[in-house]
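> @MW can you paste both from yesterday?
MW: sure, first one:
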Amino acid sequence: MKIVIPIEPKALERPRFTKAGHAYTSQGDKVFKTRFIILCRRAFKDDPYNVPISVSIRFYLKPPARPKFKHYHAVRPDVDNYLKSVFDAANGVLWTDDALIFDVHATKLYDWTGEPRIEIEIMPYGEIKCGAI
């Protein structure tokens, strides 16, 4: 199953702390999560996966004026921070819990058409063939 979420990828920020020491989520992370969930529900009408899954994600980002590398976004933010934002937002929508993910493939790419997006491919454990990954 493959879905395309037409949203600019956002890396999950580190938690912020008040002077009293209470942690809170940044406003940007909250906005991304809300928009991601809405777009995800439009693209994915089934119940969330509740079996072990393999996930492949491609993050397409707007290229800067002078990219360091032509195709790959091999600069900060780190790909794992992009993954964290998607995994957190997709809990309860695409899968019941991101603990079900046993295999992950992630790529950050520049999209020269100017259409940032996140492409997610999910393969349930029972459908994975030997050597397919």
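MW: second:
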Amino acid sequence: MNTSLTLQHPPADPVEGGHVAARESANSALDGPMLFAPDGLEPQAGALPKPWEILVVDDEPDVHAATRFALRDFKLDGRTIAFTSAGSAAEAIALMQTRQDIALILLDVVMETEHAGLDVVRHVRDGLKNKLVRIVLRTGHPGQSPERSVVIDYDINDYKDKADLTVQRLITCVVSALRSYRDLQQLEESRTALKRAQADLQQALAVQERLVRERSDMLVQSEKLASVGQLAAGVAHEINTPMANVATNLGTLRDDVSDLFRLLDATRAAVPELGAPLELRRLQKEINVDFLRKDIASLLQENITGVERVRKIVQDLRDFSQVDRSKKWQWVNLHRGLEVTLSLLATDLQAKSVVVVKEYGDIPDIECQSGELNQVFLALLLNAVQAIPDGAQGEITVRTGCENDRVWVEVSDTGSGIAPVHLSRIFEPFFTTKPVGSGAGLGLSMAYGVVRKHGGDISATSILGRGTVVRLTLPISHVAA
């Protein structure tokens, strides 16, 4: 049926303020939401999908009524139409400020001004940056707004002359516009989802990159520690042989000097009987033999003590590094590892006047990788030393014990303590509360990794200003993963 739209409508609805009330029903111009149920049935709440939102902007009430009547049975994709009406450009602009769900605007051009509808188009597209809503211009004065110039100069989707706009043409126009809106909306939703997925992916990649950097730095640090251990073991081996020779030679020299003094004593006893020459008597007065006897014995003993000390340090270095056995699981007494580590830290302990208290319990040997556990002891003890402020009289207590099938080691200090906000992070890689350049933040992280590798646990408690206690527990027998 090719009847003009303006001829196929019921009598005009009452108008307030020059426009039809918003969201009126197509079957009832006076009340109810503008939802169109097929076959004249009223829609039930929740029974229909969300309707298409159409804004009709026109200063002629008859146009609103005719549009609702023409689309009274309209349905697309199972969705009916909900109308919103505006009687002027100003009212349409105000509505569009708050409405984001309008799919189509059926817009008159000449209303309060000759270009009022075009002002709406410009505001929607340029002001609100709304490129999604479809806009169809309907004008009764095509001469005042020529189609060619309007279509080119304004971002609209269709241009209709009211005199030629039949019901079928209106329906065709609305279907085309709503399908276009649907496709653009789906495209926009896909683009938004893609952006969200891209942002999530970038965030995940950033996390992975950070983890890779951390693991790489930890591997580098681990390699450095391994190199230091190998170097220490090599140096210890190279020093050990000559120091053993020096110790042996000093012992022999001490015995030889003792024999020489015995010979000298016998000679001195025989001199008065033989009649000592004048020169010999002068030398006896010039050289204080008794002083030489005491001084040489003292010097030899100091050298022997020093050599023994060096030999002990070298042996401690070899025991600490355990290069040849560090990757092997073996039965070890932890007290030996603690003693070796404390020996290597003797200089640091003396520099801060730190007293070490040992409260060793009766613990069995455990199956472990001793070289790695020695690194853990070094990290814990060194942190305890560094936690004690310079000039303060500090104390470090090392405790051990055994509970069921596990042994435990505690290292406590009377240092400055750790703030609660930092305590939960001390085992994280690169986390440190020390000044920049004073630590890499890997010591406790490495300790955590080694203890977990051994099937153990490590934890810390601290009171700010009073000190920290770090406790680790280890299984007696290693169970391969």
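> thanks! The chain has twelve helices and twelve strands.
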